[in-house]
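Note to self: keep these together.
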Amino acid sequence: TLPADDSGRVRAQIAAAGKILDETTDDDGALTLRAELLVEDAARFVPLAPLPEEMRPAAE
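Structure:
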């Protein structure tokens, strides 16, 4: 699901990387897409979760 203010740009990037199968918009203008993407392409559109506290010192 993409917020209304950013959906156009990100939708275009997703469409260029794969195939959009379905899209819906909610009352606030947020866009929900279902798309076929390669794993490496899909990873570009998923926000990274923060590292758990116990792993951060090792990553730094």
